[in-house]
Design goal:
By secondary structure, this protein is α/β, with parallel strands linked by helices. Helix content is 43%, strand content 24%. It has a 6-stranded mixed β-sheet, with helices on both faces. Strands 1-2 form a two-stranded antiparallel ribbon. Strands 7-8 form a two-stranded parallel ribbon. Helix 1 crosses helix 2.
């Protein structure tokens, strides 16, 4: 039963006439009659008896009328309370994200919050994880979305999703995935240390007794993608990092064997209480998380 039809029913009963109710509501009389017929079909009962002067309630109609006012008042109260809660989420909140997430997850977060909480001003700070951890601890930002951050006493971490790390190559390249030594001999473009992606890349090859041939260190994700597209080199990236327009259809992704994953966490300072704004941000992040990776990952740190 739609709330709209229930409101139409009450207006007809109060007006004593379908024509008068249609005029008050501002819709055509045949359209209102059709909505009433749908309501009666849903309930399996006639609600009005047509008379020369208009309509009167049947026994079923009187029972519904007695309950309809209470139902509609409750619905209006819920809408008012939810609206008040949404309006209460206001002010400014700063959240940090690494370059591999800011263009995609950050964009979705801003778009969602602008629609649901228009009085909230979100500041997204983009930097590498080691910088964001320090900004979080120093109070420069209130929250951060960070990959593979180990637990610590002063930072509270909540896992959001787990996503694979993939080899990114130009579209026309077929890398020797079954030969780590030949793979390491390709031109590699990596981030400058300290950096999680650089550490993961190095560790993957060290475990196979070889070392990647690094031809350039790049801290800009946009530049890194452009270099891969142009065939300058290869790299390992999270899947979400290449969901940007400049990479779609121009960068080819290959799974590694064995696979590598990163777990992305929502991080806050342990001593801070959660504000309504922070709660709204976390709720939106959790709504977006399934689009980025596996969310059923438990509560523990996953390296």
């Amino acid at each position: 039963m739609e709330t709209r039809r229930l409101r139409y029913f009450v207006r007809i009963a109060d007006a004593g006439s379908i024509n008068r109710a249609a005029h008050e509501i501002g819709i055509a009389q045949p359209a209102l009659s059709q909505q009433l017929a749908v309501l009666e079909a849903e309930l399996g009962a006639k609600l009005f008896v047509r008379t020369h002067g208009g309509v009167t309630l049947t026994d079923a109609g009187m029972r519904l009328y007695a309950r309809a006012h209470d139902v509609l008042r409750q619905i209006d109260r819920i809408a008012e309370e939810v609206g008040d809660a949404a309006r209460a989420v206001e002010g400014r909140i700063a959240i940090g994200m690494p370059p591999t997430l800011a263009p995609t997850l950050g964009a979705g977060l801003i778009e969602g919050l602008v629609e649901s909480h228009p009085r909230l001003r979100l500041h997204v700070a983009e930097a590498w994880s080691n910088v964001l951890v320090e900004q979080l601890r120093n109070g420069i930002i209130e929250m951060a979305v960070l990959p593979n951050l180990p637990p610590s006493a002063d930072v509270e971490t909540t896992p959001l999703f787990r996503e694979p790390l993939l080899l990114a190559t130009p579209m026309d390249m077929v890398p020797p995935l079954d030969d780590p030594a030949r793979l390491a001999a390709l031109p590699w473009i990596v981030n400058q240390l300290p950096n999680m992606m650089r550490a993961v890349t190095t560790a993957w090859f060290v475990a196979r007794d070889c070392e990647p041939r690094v031809v350039a260190e790049v801290d800009s994700l946009g530049l890194l993608v452009r270099l891969i597209v142009r065939g300058t080199g290869v790299t390992i990236v999270p899947r979400s990092a290449v969901r940007v327009p400049e990479a779609e259809g121009r960068v080819r992704l290959w799974p590694l064997d064995p696979p590598i994953f990163r777990t992305v966490h929502l991080c806050t300072r342990s001593e801070r209480s959660r504000s309504p704004a922070a709660t709204a941000v976390e709720a939106k992040l959790r709504a977006l998380a399934p689009d980025f990776g596996e969310t059923d990952i438990g509560a523990s740190y996953t390296p």
